[in-house]
Amino acid sequence: MRFSADQLARMLVESGARSGPLHAQLSQGLRELIELGELPIGATLPAERALASALSVSRTTVVTAYQSLSQEGRLERRQGSGTRVRAAVQEVERETVSSHVLAGDHAAAQFLNGPLATIDFATAALPCLPVVADTAAAIGREEYLQLGQQHHGYHPRGLPALRERLARWYTEDGLPTTAEQILVTSGAQQAVELVTQGCLQAGDSVVVEEPTYRGALEAFALAGCRVRSVASDAHGMDVAALARLSAPRLVYAQSTLQNPAGTVLAPDRARRLVKLAEDEHVVVVDDTALAGTAFEPARSRPLATYGDSERILTIGSLSKLFWGGLRLGWIRGASRTISRLAQMKGITDLGTSLVSQQIGLHLLDQVSLARSSRRSELVEGLADLTALLAESLPSWTWVPPRGGASLWVRLPGADTTQFAQVALRFGVAILPGAVFSASGGLTEHTRLPYAVPPAVLRAGVHRLARAWAAYLGDARSSVPVVSLTT
């Protein structure tokens, strides 16, 4: 397995900030990735010069780090064959867990590896709304006893009462739905993975917009699909460009609110996408996980409201609106399709937590309150972030989002894979735009969260401004990590 310089640079960003000389920081980061198995035995590391460019350090820094790890017996370097991860003496011929998907950068890295830096701008997770704790605490012992009396407690399709409630929720919003059309999942990510496993085979063609949700890209890659992309602008996916492609097996869209750009699919494009699904027999996955965070929810409609085709699968979630810790999502689709996906879910997951589902059942009565609360905090956070950027980083640009928890920002002339390394030295972690791209493009972009405390937001932007000045100047100089109050 061969790692590119950009790929390894992203892995180092996501594994966290470090202190000390740059060569020591690099050797420590590589050492941890090797120990965790993210860099598997036999993996070929990038050439010194290429990695130095991706990390915005001198070639000497990389040479010194490689030499240090070679002396420890973790790397082997051979003239003409490059640098490889070396098996320790006690290692067997093949690792116990050796799946290829364990190598490389991935969306869960920042959650698996702990805090990324003093200030973490790499994640855009939303804080838990107080109504979640209030609702969970208000459920009494008798209700939990009744829940526990439901035989074995396994419901692969989801708690019947919750499925009925979700169906009624859609119906009340103008999209007639029955409980048989709902499959409850452990979050929207599991929903994406179930659809991927159930609708796609290795080699199938998938089209996404550019940029798009990173977790979906990883699910499609894991399934061995051929992923193509079409551009996205302030009005959402360019459906006209999509229509010019040879018909794919599946299109992954985000009509109600796009992650990470915060755009909403225009009604005329939504209608054309639904018609394309019907005419070309294309499966369309409409991920509406962010819908509850829209600044103007009345203007945000899922694709199924434009034509309830059997080929449209709608993904929903309570994670963004209420709290990610609930791990509660769902798929809405044709009854037969939902039944088949439920069979697949039952093979690997006998059911999502009934306790979370019972809490979610009550939270659905609090949706209006939650949307109002979430909208207020997000609008305020966005205003704070854009004011700080205008003051400290006036050359950075963006299209105003219509919801969501992050701002999709363009850094003119930058390679954000390189800039992310410089920013990390100033104690703030960001993600390169390439991780949101099917083709590894979008190198001038990054995603900045604004659902963070004002003091942290202010400190983070000030650090980014200093990092930007260093990047435009001598990005290869050693820079100490600054304090939170800087």
From TrEMBL:
Official protein name in the record: PLP-dependent aminotransferase family protein
Keywords attached to this entry: Aminotransferase, DNA-binding, Pyridoxal phosphate, Transcription, Transcription regulation, Transferase
UniProt xrefs under InterPro entries: Aminotransferase_I/II_large (IPR004839), HTH_trans_reg/aminotransferase (IPR051446), PyrdxlP-dep_Trfase (IPR015424), PyrdxlP-dep_Trfase_major (IPR015421), PyrdxlP-dep_Trfase_small (IPR015422), Tscrpt_reg_HTH_GntR (IPR000524), WH-like_DNA-bd_sf (IPR036388), WH_DNA-bd_sf (IPR036390)
PROSITE patterns: HTH_GNTR (PS50949)
Pfam families, alphabetized: Aminotran_1_2 (PF00155), GntR (PF00392)
Ranges for domain HTH gntR-type: 20-88
Molecular function as annotated in GO: transaminase activity
Key word Plastid present: no
Record family assignment: In the C-terminal section; belongs to the class-I pyridoxal-phosphate-dependent aminotransferase family.
